[in-house]
Amino acid sequence: MKFTVVSIGTEINLGLILNTNSKYIAEALTELGLECNFMITVRDNEHDIVSALKVCSSVSDIIIVSGGLGPTDDDLTREAIAKYLSRDLVRDNSLDESSLRFLKYIKNDDVTQGLLKQSLVPDGSVPIKPGVGSASGFLFQLDDGKIIFSIPGVPREMKDMFDKDVLPFIKERLVDKKKESHTGGKAGSDEEVKILRKTILLTTDISESQIEFLLKDVKKTAIEKNIEIGITANPGLIKIILISQSYNATDCKDSLNVIENGIRDILDENIYGKDDTSIGDSIKDAIDRSGMSITISTAESITGGLISSLITDTPGSSKYFKGSIIPYTDYSKKNVLGLDGKIIRSDGAVSKKVCLEMAKKAREVFNTDFAISTTGIAGPSIPEKGKDVGLVYCSIIGPGNIKEIYEKRFIGTRADIKFRTAQFILNRLRLAIIKKTN
User: Fold this and answer.
1) CATH architecture observed for domain 2-184
2) For the chain, first and last CA: distance in Å?
């Protein structure tokens, strides 16, 4: 089954707010095996909404419209859907209580009537009472079996209604479809529900073009197994998205595993996680798998605390992360971290020697098993002659004489360089922990 997400709001089209609703809806429905063939954003304009519905209903089995259900004059989704369906808007008195939920001490007929607009639904539709907020939703089933859902646009309200009302309805619909296919449908027929599964592999310290080149042969195998491979690139994080479609759940899973394992064999250390894993989660996972009580600390110059933030984003990190020093200036490197000023004067703050000494000092201060450090030039200015923006040094000091130092030359904005640095050294720390405990 295919679905379309229609997001209503002029503020979205103007780029004033980020459209997170479509992402949330699409991820949830994709997990059920549905395929999203269109995502559309439409301004608060009745004619445009009707036009979008005409397109969507011609290509999708399910249309989910988010937004435009409030009480204000520019909330036009109800009117637009009713017009598309050639239905009148009728007041459902069962919705009045929620429509007037926030009308407490104001006694004004105009305000009341405005809020009661939220009790209007197209004739013949099924109303959906809001659990959060005051805007009601509704669903309408067309003669050909296609369904239109209309739900609020405020993210908190949308999620509540989608999770509690829309998603259960669609799940039940899929169960019914499956029963129908078992009693009379043929494999691959329109009556049978196609299963869709996805896996996302998270990589760092490798470019999109490198991945594309390295996976040439794997992509050939993926085509044979009806698996799509997509790559999305962000500085310091490349996602490899695997999408499998089949009428058999076991075949779907097995095909995904084959391709995933093939990619892991090739990219190996560059893959630090899967699906919604963060780089901080990968550190915790490596420590947990070791079965040992491992502690870590950091000394961050160029990253300015970003590494510590990524580590502590993971719940339970206080068990192994003991702290960080941010010696952002030469003064703090000498007087806070305790580096020898002679090394800074001779080699510069952005140098291998300084970076290693930073990690050593952090390990001593916090008495940890591992310590990592970073120093570099994020730009746009260049504080040391002969050294370019993007030059970064990262180091790891650990038990058993572990001493790693890396020179990297990252590109991008100031924020890009900082994030690339943090991702890189945290991945190297993950690998160092794994190698030490194997």
Assistant:
1) 3-Layer(aba) Sandwich (3.40)
2) 46
